[in-house]
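Proteins fold reproducibly. Take a sample protein:
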Amino acid sequence: MLVSKNIDFVSLIKVRGRPIIWLLAYMGIIAALYGFEIISIDIPWLPVSVIGTSVAFYVGFKNNQAYDRMWEARKIWGGIINDSRTWGMMIDGYLTNLFTIEDKSESEIYELKKKLIYRHIAWVYAHRSQLLVPTQWESVGFVNEKAKGLNRERKNFGVGLFDDETTRAELKLFLAEDEHDQLINSVNTATQIINKQSRDLTKLREQGVIYDFRHIELENILRAFYELQGKNERIKKFPLPRQYTFMIRIFVAVFILLLPFSMIPELMKMSEWALWMSIPLCALIGWIYVMMEIVGEHTANPFQGLVYDIPMMSLCRTIEIDLREMLGEKELPTAILSKSGILM
């Protein structure tokens, strides 16, 4: 997620400079054909402007839907944070010797709390990792030049910026060794972690550590985690309808192809030098439309590991800090800070 007030121009060119190159090349070729009087096509500006306006409306509709998907994802993660704090509070307050058949020592009670809270932290990181796995419809999952470019972005302007803080070892830290080996090989690790939590709550109910009402309350929190996980998975696995993405690229391409055949002849009527000024001007207009389409495409999927993502790593670390502090731990990890104006 971009957190800086302004986007550095150099970084913008690094990330989105490629379209400018081929746009300048295309506009330059067309301008040269006009300059050397090889072609004399003069498309009236009115139909081209109508096409441009229609494309702008279509791109705007797509971008609105893309923003809705991103904002929904952020609200879901806000729910995960709130319910995680509630889980930590309930575990800390509900696990006592008040109803136990045989009293447990303070250290045993603490270990039970720690086990349930640490396992939940593992769920948070596992859920994040699963959301970052490319799906079939994401460009980062393809084997082509576009995918290579996006993977470079992931490395240089996305999750790669925080490579030393990735969660590769988090599950080993928060899960017991036998649990880790079992859960990590599950088809859906996050789902099985929550199920493991439920099984442990049942055992605690049998031992009298928690009674019926508290057991039900804790199970309801686990159900809420499943709902939040499922909502994120819906956004991840169900794309913005691909016909919108495909057709809008066609429309933008048609507009860019027609643009110089209308604008260059119009500018040539002003003066000779206007012919060459039309090259950067046409390229700039084309770049604006290309960028609108690209921004909408990336915003529609907030779990790609790119700069446009929901800052899941930062949110996971916030949950970890809050829950470990509830356990009374003093040596807490540091919060994730932005790097180069990017928070992941």
